[in-house]
Amino acid sequence: MHHSTRVHVLAHGQMLASLPIAQALHKHVPLAPGERLVEISGAPVQISVLGSGMRKPDIYGFDGNVPVSEVLAKAGGLNSNTADYRYVLLYHPEANGRTQLVVFHWDTGAGFLAAQWYLVQNNSVLYVSSQPIVKLNKALNLLLNVALPVQVFKEVFTQQAAAISIPAQTAN
Q1: Residue 31: C-alpha distances to residues 9, 37, 163 (Å)
Q2: Whole-angstrom Cα distance, residue 96 to residue 42?
Q3: Quick one: how far is CA 67 from the chain centroid?
Q4: Interior CA angle at 50 toward 49 and 55, to 5°?
Q5: Residue pair 133/53 in contact by the 8 Å Cβ criterion
Q6: Per-residue b or e along 67-99, where b marks 16 or more CB atoms closer than 10 Å to that residue's CB
Q7: With left for phi above 0 and alpha for psi between -120 and 50, is residue 148 left, alpha or beta?
Q8: Suppose 104 and one of 88, 124, 134, 143 were both cysteines; which one would form an S-S bond, judging by CB atoms 3.0 to 4.6 Å apart?
Q9: Are 79 and 54 in contact (CB under 8 A)?
Q10: Judging by DSSP bridges, how do beta strands 45-50 and 124-130 pair with one another?
Q11: What's the rounded Cα separation, in Å, for the pair 5 and 32?
């Protein structure tokens, strides 16, 4: 049983009480007519997967601490078109309130192997950035999408103005 599993007492669609399943198993929970018990389970380990280098960034649940490689697999793996394989970053909270940063160099054998055994803890964040060239491509695309239409408009306008001859007026 997971520590996040809870038992809810419901009556006519309203929740009357909620308690952890361990408490509910050791406690007598009297029910009135129309009341019922409902067990709600949730994954005890929640991990946020972020970054444009991931195929399916989201929040994923696991039954316990799992290796980095399993988290990456559940999130669809790294996006081969955008991921910066040099830096797979794992941020996880420590008991003292600080956050620890672990960097996996996925482009090396050592980083790949470390991701097979290093366990991800609850409330951790796994982040994979995009390659620097992807950021450059985005900037160039934006520039071209703005500059090219302006240049085309300028050329068309110049050609149309040249095609129209306006006679010069003379003063009498």
Answers
A1: 8, 8, 90
A2: 26
A3: 18
A4: 85
A5: no
A6: ebbbbbebbeebbeebbbbebbbbebeeeeeee
A7: alpha
A8: 88
A9: yes
A10: parallel
A11: 23
Does pTM top 0.85 for this prediction? no
DSSP letters of 101-165? EEEE-TTSHHHHHHHHHPEEPTTEEEEEEEPHHHHHHHHHHHHHHHHHHHHHHHHHHHHHHHHS-
**pLDDT tens, position by position, 125-153:** 999 988 877 566 667 777 767 766 666 66
Contact criterion met (CB below 8 Å) for 40 and 10: no
Task: Compute the average pLDDT of residues 62-87.
Answer: 90
Q: Which residues contact 51 (CB under 8 A, 6 or more apart)?
A: 57, 127, 128, 129, 130
Which tokens hold the place of 101?
A: 């940063």
Cβ(30)–Cβ(24) below 8 Å = no
The string of pLDDT tens digits covering residues 10-69 is: 888 787 887 777 777 787 878 888 888 777 666 778 899 999 889 999 989 888 889 999
Q: How far apart, in whole angstroms, are the C-alpha atoms of residue 37 and residue 136?
A: 56
